[in-house]
Amino acid sequence: MTNELCLDGQWKLVYYPQGEWQIHHPDELSKLGLPSIHASVPGNVELDLVSSGLLPEPFLGTNISELRPYELYEWWYSLEFIAPPQMEGKKTELVFQGVDCIATYWLNGEELGSSDNMFIEVRLETTNSLLCHSVNKLFVRLRSPIIEAGLRSTDAICYGPLTNGEQLYVRKAAHSFGWDIMPRAVSAGIWRSVSLVAIEEHALNDLYFYTVSVEKNLSAAEIGLFYRVATDPAYFYHGLEIRVTGKSGASEFQICKPVLFNVGSLTISLKKPLLWWPNGYGEAHLYEVTTELLHQGRVLASRTEQIGVRQVHLFRTETTTMEAGGEFLFKVNHTSIMCKGSNWVPMDAFHSQDARRYETALQLFTETGCNIVRCWGGNVYEDHAFFDFCDSHGLMVWQDFAMACAVYPQTPEFRDAMRLEARSVVKKLRNHASLVLWCGDNECDEAYQWYGLPDPSMNQITRTLLPQVIQQYDPHRAYLPSSPYLSPEVIRSGNMNLAPERHLWGPRDYYKSSFYKTSTDHFISEIGYHGCPNLSSIQKFIEPDHLWPFNSKDEQWVAHATDVSGSQGHNATRIQLMANQIKELFGAIPDALEDFILASQISQAEAKKFFIETTRLKKWRKTGIIWWNMIDGWPQFSDAVVDYYYGKKLAFHYIQRSQVPVCIMIDEPENWHVRVAVGNDSRESAAGSYRIWDADSKETLMEGRFEVEANGTAELGKIPISHSNQQLFLLEWNLNGRTYGNHYLLGFPAFSLETYKGWLPQIAAISNDFRADEIGR
């Protein structure tokens, strides 16, 4: 029987500057006879304008600026549909999974409701008398978020970036108002799917699975289930039961319990469970679990989902010092995890296109050996398909709530909006095994310091409201108030560097400067370095006349910096920064585009390799690094290691080598020597053979056998060096029948770009996982 009708596809769209017409009902709209265009659902209105030939390709040149006038428009979507006869006589709901963002809804001339949050699902009940089984007319009106933001109440404590303060007052992805990694594209649209759904008489409305405990020897585990059912209350006393059946490989369980009320809980004991592990530490086992509501043996309702059995703890201290120490450590199933991963930023400036990019983008994380992905707070909350991939591939997810780099309102209205949003998002995502941490926001604690405001502990959204929501709906998962979190102890010390978890941006100077080498943090959740996209990608968004010579003031280069306030804006300096980082490593800025691209990619690759390996070599003083970032959400010059068109930069390949579970690395010089160590980020000991040699002379510098304990580090020896030398050391090791490679760049800048070009084929040839002649192309 059909219980859902998908309403995705082609709709009609009417639009005009808000206020030009005073229209309050769809009947008034139709009387005016305004022209319409076709609109895609899911979609964004700007893409519909492009498809209709009314806007140019927005990602080419400076075309993104042509979207600016449409920020003040309102948009009317309309659709005619026929409800299936099977729904006749049933209660139904219109379900909008994502609407951006100030919306009012009508069905057959009657207003159903409104919404003002792009992040959460909207469910609108339709009465039997309203929904007809001939032709139904559905209208959705979207008003300007800019105009709406200007009407909302504010308080004096609010601060945000100068060019995008609107983001504080509407629940819309912060990056869309302009960011250093995304263009200003204040979009509108029905950006996720729409459906008409029959409300079943019997249903399992709420199912929350969680792991209660895992034995230290991993031989047993206990999981819990909270449930809420909808059914005839009279059934509670006449044979109503809940049955839970799970299977993963050879591990199975089943439990059946009476249901005496519409809410309840139960626990399930497992012997020899197949546990869920982060990538590199074991298999990401998932149980297929079917939950059934039974009445006297008859199945009234059923749901099937994938769950993971795993126990995750975040051990952290409020502060850290080199003398007294501190902690910021994830443990999964009693095992300390060395976290290696990347930040997840918007997949597209137009979020209706996100879903089609999920799988390819997430495969980049598995290719590079990541075991964690941080969902950054300036973005949207990703859908189930994203988390399903992370569940099945052992990618731990750190999820920020959608606030970034600002001091948000503390008004009752904003608190109510955030409570509704948090409850919706937490309940939606809490069954995913990959989700290991809720985080209050991105850099909002630091924003209090930027704007000279009092202690960020005054932020009642992250200190009171969000932890209350999590305690209520997901009490078995860790919460961090902000990233970085500035505890009262850190604030009292006056030294923000004492936070155990930090974002290491700083001057962005030479990647081996004291800023990077002397940080006291335990966990780095943001750190990056610029790298130019490949030539074939640049040619897709920079027009030929603007490609070269290099000019940090060129309007098209600056537009893709990203910059939100013209060539004099703060972010316009990112182009010059990229050139300066090239000059820092090679002593000069190349005079040809191809060499500029290659030099930039080498600079970025060496920097990110250094950041990762420095973290691993200081295990367990350092417990993780989430570098910035994997892939761009629009064509630009950035810290990403894969560009918007999926072009892999050199850094992608170096990271791939530096993040293998068992990796041989060379530390920085000390006492005329460099230390050689092997790191093992896995639950099994490892042994193999290795060789280290000089790239120019081919002289063997060290070789032999290595052994390293599970989840440990072993020193293999030391190689004598001279600080006056510039050398490339090549490393190769064999483990379980496979050959791995790495390299180490010794010496101080400036290096010769021509010399490095000669080294690059040798670096590539170690384990033949990339081709030197394809880098930068």
From TrEMBL:
InterPro entries: Beta-gal/glucu_dom_sf, Beta-mannosidase-like_N2, Beta-mannosidase_GH2, Galactose-bd-like_sf, GH, Glyco_hydro_2_cat, Ig-like_fold, Ig-like_GH2
This enzyme's EC code(s): 3.2.1.25
Domain Glycoside hydrolase family 2 catalytic per the UniProt entry, residue ranges: 330-448
Catalyzed chemical reaction(s): Hydrolysis of terminal, non-reducing beta-D-mannose residues in beta-D-mannosides
Domain Beta-mannosidase-like galactose-binding intervals: 21-192
Keywords tagged on the record: Glycosidase, Hydrolase, Signal
Molecular function GO terms recorded: beta-galactosidase activity
Enzyme class: hydrolase
Pfam family, one: Glyco_hydro_2_N2
Domain Glycoside hydrolase family 2 immunoglobulin-like beta-sandwich: 263-310
Family: Belongs to the glycosyl hydrolase 2 family.
Official protein name in the record: beta-mannosidase
Source species: Paenibacillus allorhizoplanae
Lineage start: Bacteria, Bacillati, Bacillota, Bacilli, Bacillales
